[in-house]
Amino acid sequence: MPLNILFAFSGTFTVANLYYSHPILDVLAQFFGVTHERVSLIPTCSQAGGLGEKKTFCPTVDLYHCGPQIMLPLVGDLVPPARRATALSIVSSGLVLGLLFARLLSGIVAEYSYWRNIYWLSLALQFLIFALLWMFMPDYPRTNINISYVKILYSIIGYYWTSPVLVQATLMGFFLSATFTSFWTTLTFLLSGDPYNYPTLTIGLFSLAGLTPMFLGPLYSRYMIDKFVPQLSILVSLSILIIGVSIGTYTGTYSVAGPIIQAALQDFGLQMTQIANRTAIYSVAPKARNRINTGYMIGVFCGQLMGTSC
Fold first, then answer.
1. Are residues 135 and 201 both part of a single domain?
2. Cys staple from 178: which of 137, 270, 296, 307, with CB 3.0 to 4.6 Å?
3. Burial of 238 from C-beta contacts in 10 A (0-12 / 13-18 / 19+)
4. What's the gap between Cα 145 and its chain centre?
5. Looking at the structure, do residues 221 and 180 belong to the same domain, yes or no?
6. Same domain, 104 and 222
7. Which residues cross the membrane (predicted)?
8. Same domain? 95 vs 132
């Protein structure tokens, strides 16, 4: 449990770096004197950088360790299969919290000080995370030896050919992540314009609506994902997500309740689907979970990239 909490904390403030810009896009547009369409390239380029990192570095942690996405396969290695989904949900909650806490923290800092200060705070947090992981992360033997970096990258493609489960999960991750980032990127422009005209702080507070996965995720994982086949959990999660998106789409332009309900249900449905998918794909190649996770996350980050650029 302490290691799960450490991983969740590290994931929170590492993932947050991709999302600090979201609630202050309107402020950045005014500061740089550009249009909303132009300033939306900031989160798009951030996601593109994240995709490059996942493709380049994540597979190598069959040999070395790095990054929050590496913590998830490591949890899959360390936890018994019967409790894997529960443990993954705790660490995943940290990643979700990073997506949402970044918006809240950025909105507060920009409202009461200067927007650049959020990035100075981020720098300090990265040094703290580095120190904590250096001191408390356990030694973990390499799961594969005598394999080159090129072969590691090439083997990821091979898993797509031999594992339909990975292909299915990756496609779901792609489309669901596109809807997620598209919603949170455009939400800033919706709330800062008519009929709402909310300030940066209020926009940042909307991230609190997306905390449902953090509170309900471990319970859902323990009593649903761990107990039943992943496909059933995925169907239930997708149904919840579709309900949230439908409510937000048809009511968001005239009622603030629409975006709040959509944020709560969409975030919960997305994260529970991802946990169920990870539970399924980690059984594909137990000694290559980092590579399997990289294959899955390539689809997720491509979806996030498409969502922020739309």
1. no
2. 307
3. middle
4. 30
5. yes
6. no
7. 85-106, 118-137, 198-220, 232-252
8. yes
| HEC secondary structure over the chain | CHHHHHHHHHHHHHHHHHCCCHHHHHHHHHHHCCCHHHHCHHHHHHHHHHHHHHHHCHHHHHCCCCCHHHHHHHHHHHCCHHHHHHHHHHHHHHHHHHHHHHHHHHHHHHHHCCCCHHHHHHHHHHHHHHHHHHHHCCCCCCCCCCCCHHHHHHHHHHHHHHCHHHHHHHHHHHHHHHHHHHHHHHHHHHHHCCCCCCCHHHHHHHHHHHHHHHHHHHHHHHHHHCCCCHHHHHHHHHHHHHHHHHHHHHHCCCCCHHHHHHHHHHHHHHHHHHHHHHHHHCCCCHHHHHHHHHHHHHHHHHHHHHHHHC
pLDDT tens for the chain, 310 residues: list them: 677 788 888 888 888 888 898 888 888 888 898 887 888 888 877 766 655 554 444 444 443 344 566 676 677 667 777 776 777 777 777 777 787 788 888 888 988 888 899 999 999 999 999 899 888 877 766 666 667 777 877 888 888 988 999 999 999 999 999 998 889 888 888 998 888 999 888 888 888 887 777 778 878 888 888 888 888 999 999 999 999 999 999 998 889 999 999 999 998 999 899 889 988 888 887 777 778 888 898 898 888 888 877 6
